[in-house]
């Protein structure tokens, strides 16, 4: 099947994009922002944790295990975030055996997700508090991937 024979617009666009890539190569231009402030603010905390889990590079994490309590006093929500076998999971509530407990407002989390603040800036300013092993949380965050927008469609 070729692009002009495809019955749906999505399939047609996929085929034509692959054909254009094979003929002309990938021309990386300005990368559009894929995460907007409205999108981050519109996510519930479970949605945000799913978003975070997508960015975890499980093969790099390997056999490392992490467990964190995340407390958001401004919205009254608490979660336990775990990483085991290269997979990130979360549950409502807190656990007793964790590497650290992180306390921050939801609005502060949004600023971190948008790149407006770093973890170090948060800790220095007092906008976030980490009780326990601070290094473990930073280590876990180091396994997050940034996806390259201009990936190949038709070639591996």
Automatic annotation (TrEMBL):
Question: For the Alkyl sulfatase C-terminal domain, which residue ranges apply?
Answer: 34-156
Record-linked InterPro entries: Alkyl_sulf_C, Bact_Alkyl/Aryl-Sulfatase, SCP2_sterol-bd_dom_sf
Supply the Pfam families for this chain.
Answer: Alkyl_sulf_C (PF14864)
As given in the record, the signal peptide range reads none
Question: This protein is called what?
Answer: Beta-lactamase domain protein
């Amino acid at each position: 099947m070729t692009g002009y024979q495809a019955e749906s617009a999505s399939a047609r666009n996929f085929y034509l994009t692959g054909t254009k890539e094979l003929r002309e190569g990938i021309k990386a231009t300005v990368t559009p922002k894929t995460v907007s402030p409205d999108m981050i603010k519109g996510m519930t905390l479970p949605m945000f944790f799913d978003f975070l889990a997508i960015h975890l590079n499980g093969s790099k994490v390997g056999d490392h295990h992490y467990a964190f309590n995340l407390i958001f006093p401004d919205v009254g929500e608490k979660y336990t975030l775990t990483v085991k076998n290269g997979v990130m999971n979360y549950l409502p509530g807190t656990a007793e055996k964790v590497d650290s407990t992180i306390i921050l407002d939801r609005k502060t989390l949004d600023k971190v997700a948008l790149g407006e603040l770093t973890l170090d800036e948060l800790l220095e300013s007092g906008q976030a508090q980490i009780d326990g092993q601070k290094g473990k949380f930073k280590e876990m965050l180091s396994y997050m991937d940034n996806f390259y927008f201009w990936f190949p469609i038709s070639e591996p």
